[in-house]
Design goal:
The complex is a heterotrimer.
Chain A lengths: L8 E6 L8 H9 L19 E6 L9 E6 L12 H5 L5 E4 L4 E4 L9 H5 L6 E2 L26 E2 L5 H13 L13 H5 L5 E5 L6 H6 L1 E2 L5 E2 L4 E2 L11 E4 L3 H7 L2 H9 L1
Parallel strand pairs in A: 1-12
Antiparallel strand pairs in A: 1-8, 2-3, 4-5, 6-7, 9-10, 11-12
Chain B lengths: L4 H16 L3 H14 L12 E7 L8 E7 L2 E7 L12 H4 L2 H5 L8 E4 L2 E4 L2 H17 L6 E5 L5 H13 L3 E4 L3 H13 L3 E5 L6 E5 L10 H14 L2 E5 L5 H5 L2 E3 L6 H14 L5 H7 E2 L1 H11 L2 H8 L3 H13 L3 E4 L11 H13 L9 E5 L13 H8 L21 H6 L9 E5 L3 H4 L3 H9 L3 E4 L6 H5 L2 E2 L10 E4 L8 E5 L12 H12 L1 H5 L6 H9 L2 H8 L1 E3 L8 H4 L7 E2 L3 H5 L17 E6 L13 H6 L5 E2 L2 E7 H6 L7 E6 L2 E10 L6 E5 L18 H4 L16 E7 L1
Chain C lengths: L1 H13 L6 H38 E4 L7 H7 L22 H8 L7 H11 L21 H7 L4 H5 L11 E4 L6 H4 L16 H10 L20
Antiparallel strand pairs in C: 1-2
Helix pairs in contact in C: 4-5
Classes of the chains: A alpha+beta, B alpha/beta, C mainly alpha.
């Protein structure tokens, strides 16, 4: 079933470079037809595929420090593609694709039971409580490459999979076999003014993302880079979004750092 | 044959059996499930041919190049222009959301005229005729100088056309909106003798000492700064942030130096003192290319010893000396001034103090240093033929007093407008006010005073594309095309060290009945006739722009930008055009302005024990363009909850006031009152209240208006003794339980 | 039927003494015949409804805005279908031609057909796009790259679109009133039976071929085709 040239698209986000500006969020919203409402301050209800979290070191003034952590869908591989959300979906609306490593979400198939939201440890999944409505005339800027989601379904980050479809379409047209690294980049990667996000195929040793993430495939993709961590790694979600930080308190917060260290020693 | 219940049942059963043998149930089930997969009222974007148009962004002074992705004739997405020297393919929050301004509900769709307090649509012909009649009437009565214009910029052809119009008409009152450039321009003039734009070669610096500059919060050209910051991370550059609040810039910095607000200049002088005392300065530069050093040195050493400075600033002596040493010993150190996004001029003496640090380490015009970028020179229009009315008018004192005996050094003083308009109730010094690409009723400190002052002007003409706070006050709104519907040149991105021009070009046909402000000015001039008409020898703005850009036009059309990448700042022996032909640490002019002194915030300490300071974030914009819906959506819930803004305050300060995190309070300043929510944090000095800029709109659209509080409604300007610019960095305030 | 008998017995029991025996039997005969008759009525009626009336009600039918003869055009162009239905530079498929392409030949009326004259006066001269109704339009959640199918897999147009290139006129566009999609997706046979590869364009048809050709059979959930191949 698994093809030899299977890809494992993944991301490395350098938290030393990320300034928390929010360009990734806006780039994502504009690219992916994310709807907006007058009041978006309840973040449990506000649909955003990419969200920038603020971490604080908990110290008192003037030793307080902050770090910003952009969080797209982590595209968990789990064990052999059994990511938390995929295994609970009763409608086969979400699926793990072994040839790309992307967790898909098909809105027309979803009937809104929200099991996947309960199962996701990262809060990346959001429910459309309202009809998506654009002010008169603004529906003109909707992107035809991405389905508009109706009320009552769950949505989430797709790693801008439609851009891969378009890149492959062009490659097929030009009768080339493969899509080059720079031909398929997510909207957040492209938009990030700090260049903090790197995206590519974790199976391809030539891709920047692999050089930075240094995944150890014999240990479920754990990074060999001492600056790198993944969110809640001990859950075995085997995510494909790696974070880099030179600050230890950030790594501790983002990951179960001590558990990881203990495992490495063992 | 009798039809009874039994036969009916039988018919139904027969029907059911028959139906089961037709496709009907299966097909209906299938169709209905397909129907339920996508409600018919959910919009479906049309597919089409994709094209990408190169253009430039005008939404902030950053001057980024953009790639606009279209599907047929619709703008679908705006992205950064790859290889553009400023932003190389990426873009900031505001630029990425730009299409929402084109299609959003805040657009002015047709010229509007206020009749009995309400706007009614009028034709362009009538609107322009109304303005030109009023203007020729004024001029005939000798009141040409009572026409004024407020613009966000004074560079580029549109601003220059407006300024030219005023000059040839007979008014000296072209006013640029305030920014940190105001004070920097004076500093460059006083110390280096040049009329130039401040530029900072941040990407090549390896040690940036920022005195409150929100380098990663929208200061200068934001994307350029973000890229530079990432480069420091890759190559080991250092960033030190001096600021009372843990801003994003401070959080990203290698060191955050909290400081008593408003004392940044004192710290700069303290650092300078240590550098001089320990002879860490660039001797070659100081000895051969500067003048007045000895005199200034005495001032600094005597008045700003680390001990004194420590007391004033709250920064430890050891920190001051350490900063001085590491700054001076860095390969390419650079100091920056201008708080937050740089939307306020600040005190000249403070800017000078920071600028002197750059001089001390000899980085002026050097790689990674502070540059004086020459004003763009491509706008070279025929000499004006000045009629009597024009020359008389231009000799009148400017309404804001800039350039007068009192305010010799200032070029523009928008902050003085309310005072100038309100002092003499008998005489109305401004009869007609043009407002172009600016929203002073929202962005100028003390908005209440500005609104009162503007109410006295008989004719206010706004060229805004959006129904913003200022447009709402106008008598006529002559909507400009948005930047996605027009041509324009974008010169001199804020803080960028190289001369560069980018070209804005129409990506789509104008969506509404709007007109390019350049064309509106040309048409007004033609209507007025005589020498005014002659000063505008073009049939359209497009013709004017193409002619003005001359041989650069081709490359601008093809590449989207023109850059003088070979540009090198002149060597130290040629760079300075002062009397001494050297960099002047002191001079007669500088001494005349007095010594460095702290700028006190407005308000009585006894009544207002706390100090309110504003802060900037990349998700909220407070200039001409307010945050579009995507940005408001991305604002954190630690900053906005429902329609209430959260102010940041130190936990101990909150405790002493009996205010808990999340509680509601009334914030009072000498200028006004507002309901706010409290957010306690360890990331701010005790005794301060921090409020974000960019909220509290009353106009634009329903996604922006009515959320939070406008800092400028609660704050007012404090006149800088040296220049007359607004030197305020905060205002005294009080918090009480609601 | 036994229930009916029991019911009638119970009924006659109740009325015993009033109704003569023979009448009761006669009624029983008559009623079972009626019942069978009604069953047949219902059966036939529902078959007629299901096979004849239902399809007519389910689909609305509209003529195309302009008459078009594929055959005539096909004979005049050099590169077959691709002369008008071509790939754009980015590899996307242009689909139905836009007015800009038609104008190349039809700026003025060329022949003597009424349809052409109508097309030139109504659309070309007014510079209005023709609102063609696309028979093979897939739902908006579907991504169908022609390049992968035509260029990479070497399929020809007929495989999915049938012999439309040889048609002399455009058939009416039929739209499903419930799902709002073209009838061609389900196929013209109301039972959904497809004899030719171009008779139906449902997801199962795509999936069947993908499975046969082993295209991206990488789904963890279904062990078959992944969703993010054709959907977005």
């Amino acid at each position: 079933m698994k093809k030899e040239n299977a890809k494992r698209f993944g991301m490395v986000i350098d938290l030393d470079k990320c300034t928390g500006c929010g360009s990734c969020m806006v780039a994502c919203m504009a690219e992916n037809n994310v709807p907006f409402r007058e009041d978006e301050t309840d973040k449990l209800l506000s649909v955003a595929w990419m969200r920038v979290y603020k971490l604080t070191n908990g110290k008192a003034f003037p030793d307080a420090d902050e770090c910003f952590l952009p969080r797209p869908c982590q595209h968990c591989e789990g064990h052999h593609g059994h990511s938390p959300c995929v295994s609970v979906c009763p409608a086969t609306a979400t699926d793990y694709d072994a040839s790309t490593g992307i967790v898909s979400q098909i809105y027309t198939r979803c009937f809104g039971c929200r099991y996947c939201m309960a199962a996701c440890p990262y809060h990346v999944r959001l429910f459309n409580w309202w009809d998506p409505v654009w002010p008169d005339g603004m529906e003109k800027m909707l992107n035809p490459d991405v389905s508009v989601r109706m009320r009552g379904v769950v949505e989430k980050c797709s790693f801008c999979f439609h851009r891969y479809q378009l890149a492959r379409q062009q490659a097929d047209y030009e009768e080339r076999g493969e899509v080059a690294e720079n031909e398929y980049q997510t909207a957040c990667t492209q938009g990030c003014p700090a260049g903090a996000i790197v995206f590519g195929d974790l199976n391809n040793p030539d891709h920047e993302v692999t050089r930075l993430a240094q995944p150890d495939l014999s240990h479920e993709g754990k990074s060999r880079n001492p600056k790198a961590f993944r969110l809640l790694e001990r859950l075995g979600t085997n995510t494909k979004v790696y974070y880099l930080s030179s600050r230890e308190w950030v790594r501790r917060l983002g990951d179960n750092y001590q558990v990881k260290a203990a495992q490495h020693q063992a | 044959m009798k039809i009874d219940r039994r036969s009916f049942l039988s018919f139904a059963i027969g029907g059911a059996a028959g139906t089961a043998l037709t496709p009907l149930p299966w097909k209906l089930t299938d169709d209905m499930s397909i129907w339920s997969q996508m409600w018919p009222w959910t919009p479906v974007p049309a597919r089409g041919a994709v094209t990408v148009v190169k253009s430039a962004c005008t939404l902030c002074p950053g001057g980024c190049g953009i790639n606009v992705r279209k599907v047929d004739d619709r703008v679908v997405k705006i992205e950064g222009l790859p290889d553009h020297p400023v932003n190389d393919g990426s873009l900031c929050t505001l630029g990425l959301a730009g299409a929402q301004l084109l299609y959003g509900p805040r657009r002015v769709k047709t010229p509007l005229k206020k009749v009995n307090g309400r706007f009614v649509a009028i034709s362009w012909e009538d609107a322009l005729a109304e303005v030109s009649e009023k203007l020729s009437d004024l001029r005939a009565k000798g009141g040409a100088h009572t026409v004024a214009c407020i613009s966000s910029s004074d560079r580029g052809t549109v601003a220059e056309l407006l300024a030219r119009f005023l000059r040839v008409f007979g008014s000296p009152n072209f006013i640029r909106m305030p920014s940190s450039q105001d004070a920097y321009e004076v500093a460059l003039y006083l110390t280096q003798g040049v009329r130039a734009i401040p530029g900072f070669d941040v990407e090549h610096s390896d040690f940036v000492l920022s005195f409150g500059s929100g380098l990663l919060d929208g200061w200068g050209s934001p994307v350029y700064l973000f890229k530079a910051h990432s480069q420091w991370r890759d190559q080991g550059g250092k960033l030190i942030q001096v600021e009372p609040r843990l801003s994003r810039t401070a959080a990203k910095a290698d060191q955050w130096v909290p400081i008593n607000p408003g004392t940044e200049g004192a710290l700069a002088l303290g650092i300078a003192g240590v550098i001089i005392k320990e002879s860490l300065y660039d001797e070659k530069f100081v000895n051969s290319h500067s003048s007045g050093f000895q005199e200034w040195k005495r001032l600094v050493i005597d008045g700003f010893s680390p001990e004194i400075v420590s007391k004033v600033t709250g920064v430890k002596v050891t920190v001051i000396t350490e900063l001085a040493r590491s700054f001076a010993r860095a390969n390419r150190p650079l100091a920056t001034g201008g708080r937050g996004k740089g939307t306020s001029p600040g005190s000249l003496k403070e800017v000078l103090a920071v600028h002197f640090l750059n001089a001390l380490v000899g980085n002026l015009g050097q790689k990674g240093g502070s540059w004086a970028v020459p004003e763009p020179e491509y706008i070279d229009w025929p000499e004006l033929e000045m009629e009597q009315a024009a020359s008389t008018g231009n000799q009148q004192t400017r309404i804001d007093g800039a350039g007068s005996d009192i305010y010799t050094h200032a070029r523009y003083l928008a902050n003085r407008l309310p005072e100038a308009l309100l002092t003499d109730p008998g005489y109305q010094p401004v009869q007609v006010l043009f407002i172009s690409e600016a929203n002073p009723a929202y962005s100028l400190p003390d908005t209440t005073a500005f609104k009162d002052a503007v109410a006295k002007i008989p004719m206010k003409v706004s060229f805004s594309s959006y129904l913003d706070e200022t447009a709402e006050l106008a008598d006529l709104v002559l909507p400009n095309h948005t930047y996605l519907e027009r041509y324009e040149d974008v010169p001199a991105p804020s803080g960028y060290p190289l001369p560069i021009i980018s070209l804005v070009r129409p990506v789509v046909e104008p969506k509404f009945n709007s007109m390019h402000t350049g064309d509106a000015v040309i048409q007004l001039a033609k209507a007025l006739g005589g020498s005014i008409s002659k000063a505008f020898p073009w049939d359209s703005y497009e013709e004017c722009l193409e002619e003005t850009l001359g041989d650069k036009w081709e490359s601008l059309m093809e590449q989207g930008y023109w850059v003088d990448s070979e540009y090198e700042a002149p060597g130290w022996s040629e760079a300075f055009e002062t009397a001494s032909e050297k960099f002047e640490f002191t001079s007669r002019e500088i001494s005349a302005l007095g010594n460095y002194s702290l700028v006190k915030p407005e308000g009585d300490e006894a009544f207002f024990p706390l100090v309110l300071i504003p802060f900037d974030t990349m998700r909220l914009w407070s200039g001409y363009v307010g945050s579009p819906p995507f940005l408001i959506k991305s604002v954190e819930d630690t900053l906005l909850q429902k329609n209430e803004v959260l102010v940041e305050i130190h936990a101990a300060t909150a405790d002493s006031l009996g205010l808990g995190s999340g509680s509601t309070a009334v914030l009072t300043t000498p200028k006004g009152k507002a309901r706010v929510k409290i957010r306690t944090t360890e990331g701010i000095m005790p005794g301060l209240i921090a409020l974000p800029r960019g909220l509290g709109h009353t106009a634009n659209d329903r996604f922006l208006a009515g959320k939070g509080v406008n800092y400028n409604r609660l704050a007012g300007p404090v006149e800088d003794g040296a220049t007359g610019h607004d030197a305020a960095w905060g205002i005294r305030a009080r918090l009480a339980k609601a | 039927m036994s229930t009916v008998d029991e019911q009638s017995k119970a009924a006659s029991g109740m009325d015993e003494g009033h109704i003569p025996q023979g009448v009761e039997e006669k009624k029983q005969d008559g009623s079972s015949a009626t019942i069978i008759l009604f069953f047949v009525f219902g059966f036939i009626a529902s078959l007629i409804v299901g096979w004849v009336v239902f399809p007519k009600l389910l689909y609305s039918s509209r003529p195309q805005p302009v008459e078009f003869n594929h055959l005539v055009h096909n004979e005049m162009v050099d590169e077959g279908c691709e002369s008008c239905h071509f790939f754009r530079e980015d590899g996307s498929y242009s689909g139905v031609p836009t007015l800009a392409q038609c104008i190349d030949c039809h700026e003025e009326v060329q022949g003597d057909s009424e349809a052409e004259e109508y097309f030139v006066t109504e659309y070309v001269q007014r510079y209005r796009e023709v609102p063609w109704l696309v028979y093979s339009r897939q739902p908006p959640c579907v991504f169908f790259p022609h390049s992968a199918h035509v260029l990479k897999a070497g399929m020809d147009c007929v495989t999915c679109h049938g012999s439309i290139g040889e048609s002399e006129s455009l058939r009416p566009y039929e739209q499903n009133r419930i799902s709002r999609y073209s009838r061609d997706i389900w196929g013209h046979n109301i039972a959904g039976i497809s004899r030719n590869s171009w008779d139906r364009m449902k997801m199962d048809d795509c999936a069947e071929c993908h499975q046969r050709e082993n295209v991206n059979q990488a789904s963890v959930q279904t062990k078959r085709g992944g969703c993010f191949v054709c959907h977005h």
